[in-house]
């Protein structure tokens, strides 16, 4: 129990003034600095420091007063922390007024620090051990009065820290809500999927005071990979495939977020690059009851852990990311519907064309009939005319049936040429023009109206290759539409047979601004490369002809 009569004249007033000064601070680090400064001033100690502890008892914040830079570094690091400072009990003080004769001190303190005496006390916030305060080098040594004084000041500091936490939590909530509102506005204004996701990652990192933000989305096959990365070590994590048994996939399956206190001390870290981080927060991208992905926020090892109150706020923002994906899917569906409407129109036109062709053939036959009645035509000429007309009708009927069948069949049953044509049609609205399509067989260009030879070859391919070619063309055209500012795009589909080695090559070339030097996201290119590598193929990205635009070349073996 504090007894002010034990203090010298004027000390109670100074103590109360110091305590009130602490409660005025609303930043935790400022509270701690004020606490250490006042503790040294009121006790007469020349130096002091407080070490804030994490859940594992490790130091995550060091605030000091009076030490030189070398001394502060020595006092903040083992073996001092582990031994001398670590010996401060969880309850009650530790006073050592004759350190120069204590073998414990001699064995543990660095030669860069020469302490005369030592007072250490635990600091508790809401009943939990928050950190350890220690003061050193007081002329004449420390007394019980100093213990009481520091204890009273420590209680005031605990209240101030809690107030600062509540203030920070309120500010954080306001920032998260504002960020969510801004993102929702951007989505409703029609921001593209990639830009929206990058905005969400960047905003989440800033609002959460994180060093890195990741968004994990479906990738090749059944895998899930980091499609968006912002901040520290982003290049190392971009495109990383997250294992099914890891934390991210557990969050996705369960639809509930989690907080990791530190990857440094985690017993299992399946992704090596994650070992660079300490605290982490995982939030699922929920769309209804299904998680479309995972938002991951990371801090460096020396940073404070995420607060429990951060999790629901991050989950709310992550829902906006799922909203972005839903909007993108809706827009894609709208494009598909527009394409299907166009195909219905084409089908009707083709039917009309065939009817007209048949009508013209009928008139021709009627003319022949009239000549026959007038005996103006021979039997052989009649037979030839009839055979020609029959063949024309058969070809027309067969052609229209094949086209209508392809228009209505799902992707898995549509040939590669038709699927590529579909992608170019879908890209027309985004590009503002229609891409050109060229097909080659062994270096010979195949006319667009005569793809039968190429179709016979593609029927022998693994269907997965057809799927990957379609995906590569789709991603390439999407990149051109978003970034290239192009006025023309050419797609080349090439097949080469070199005996025992057959390959297919896709070339997408535009006349736009080229590859941006400051591009932050390469996951689309990484996915296309992955699609090539799983077939034993290659992908390159170069400047277009004449140094303008971009030329993507994607080649895989098909033999």
Relevant terms:
559 residues; alpha+beta; Beta-Lactamase; Heat Shock Protein 90; 3 domains; 6-stranded antiparallel beta sheet; 14 helices
Short description:
By secondary structure, the protein is of the alpha+beta class. It has helices spanning 11-23, 28-43, 69-75, 103-108, 144-188, 193-207, 234-237, 247-254, 310-373, 379-408, 416-431, 452-458, 463-484, 523-533, and strands spanning 47-53, 59-65, 94-96, 118-125, 128-136, 212-218, 224-231, 241-242, 258-260, 280-287, 290-298, 436-441, 444-446, 489-497, 502-510, 538-543, 550-557.
Secondary structure elements and pairings:
Elements: H1 11-23, H2 28-43, E1 47-53, E2 59-65, H3 69-75, E3 94-96, H4 103-108, E4 118-125, E5 128-136, H5 144-188, H6 193-207, E6 212-218, E7 224-231, H7 234-237, E8 241-242, H8 247-254, E9 258-260, E10 280-287, E11 290-298, H9 310-373, H10 379-408, H11 416-431, E12 436-441, E13 444-446, H12 452-458, H13 463-484, E14 489-497, E15 502-510, H14 523-533, E16 538-543, E17 550-557
Parallel strand pairs: 12-14
Antiparallel strand pairs: 1-2, 1-5, 3-4, 4-5, 6-7, 6-11, 7-8, 9-10, 10-11, 12-13, 14-15, 15-17, 16-17
């Amino acid at each position: 129990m504090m007894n002010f009569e034990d203090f010298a004249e004027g000390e109670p007033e100074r103590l109360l003034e110091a305590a009130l000064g602490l409660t005025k601070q609303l930043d935790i680090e400022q509270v701690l600095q004020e606490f250490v400064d006042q503790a040294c001033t009121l006790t007469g100690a020349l130096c002091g420091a407080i070490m804030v502890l994490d859940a594992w008892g490790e130091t995550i914040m060091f605030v000091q007063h009076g030490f030189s830079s070398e001394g502060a570094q020595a006092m903040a690091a083992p073996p001092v922390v582990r031994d001398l400072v670590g010996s401060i009990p969880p309850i009650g003080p530790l006073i050592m007024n004759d350190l120069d004769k204590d073998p414990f001190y001699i064995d543990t303190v660095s030669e860069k620090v020469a302490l005369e005496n030592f007072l250490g006390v635990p600091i508790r916030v809401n009943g939990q051990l928050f950190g350890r305060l220690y003061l050193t080098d007081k002329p004449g040594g420390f007394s019980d009065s100093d213990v009481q004084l520091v204890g009273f000041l420590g209680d005031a500091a605990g209240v101030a820290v809690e107030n600062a936490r509540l203030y920070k939590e309120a500010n954080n909530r306001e920032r998260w809500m504002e960020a969510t509102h801004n993102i929702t506005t951007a989505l409703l204004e029609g921001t593209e999927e990639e830009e929206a996701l990058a905005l969400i990652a960047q905003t989440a990192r800033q609002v959460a005071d994180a060093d890195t933000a990741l968004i994990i989305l479906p990738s090749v096959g059944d895998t899930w990979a980091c499609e968006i990365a912002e901040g520290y070590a982003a290049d190392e994590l971009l495109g990383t495939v997250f294992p099914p048994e890891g934390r991210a996939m557990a969050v996705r399956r369960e639809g509930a977020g989690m907080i990791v206190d530190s990857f440094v001390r985690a017993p299992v870290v399946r992704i090596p690059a994650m070992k660079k981080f300490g605290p982490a927060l995982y939030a699922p991208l929920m769309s209804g009851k299904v998680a479309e992905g995972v938002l991951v926020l990371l801090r460096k090892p020396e940073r404070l852990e995420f607060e429990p109150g951060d999790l629901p706020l991050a989950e709310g923002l992550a829902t906006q990311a799922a909203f972005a994906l839903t909007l993108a899917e809706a827009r894609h569906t709208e494009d598909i519907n527009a394409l299907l409407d166009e195909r219905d129109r084409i089908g009707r036109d083709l039917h009309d064309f065939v009817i007209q062709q048949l009508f013209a053939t009928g008139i021709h036959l009627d003319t022949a009939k009239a000549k026959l009645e007038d005996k103006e035509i021979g039997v052989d000429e009649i037979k030839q005319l009839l055979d020609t007309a029959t063949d024309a009708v058969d070809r027309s009927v067969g052609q229209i049936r094949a086209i209508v069948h392809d228009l209505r069949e799902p992707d898995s049953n549509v040939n590669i040429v038709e699927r590529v044509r579909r992608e170019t049609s879908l890209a027309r609205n985004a590009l503002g023009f229609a891409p050109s399509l060229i097909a080659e067989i062994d270096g010979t260009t195949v006319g667009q109206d005569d793809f039968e030879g190429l179709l016979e070859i593609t029927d022998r391919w693994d269907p997965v290759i057809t799927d990957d070619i379609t995906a590569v063309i789709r991603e390439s055209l999407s990149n051109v539409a978003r970034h290239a500012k192009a006025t023309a795009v050419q797609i080349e589909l090439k097949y080469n047979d070199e005996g025992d080695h057959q390959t297919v090559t896709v070339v997408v070339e535009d006349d736009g601004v080229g590859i941006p030097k400051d591009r932050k996201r390469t996951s689309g290119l990484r996915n296309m490369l992955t699609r090539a590598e799983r077939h034993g193929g290659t992908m390159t990205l170069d400047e277009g002809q004449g140094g303008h635009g971009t030329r993507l070349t994607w080649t895989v073996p098909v033999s």
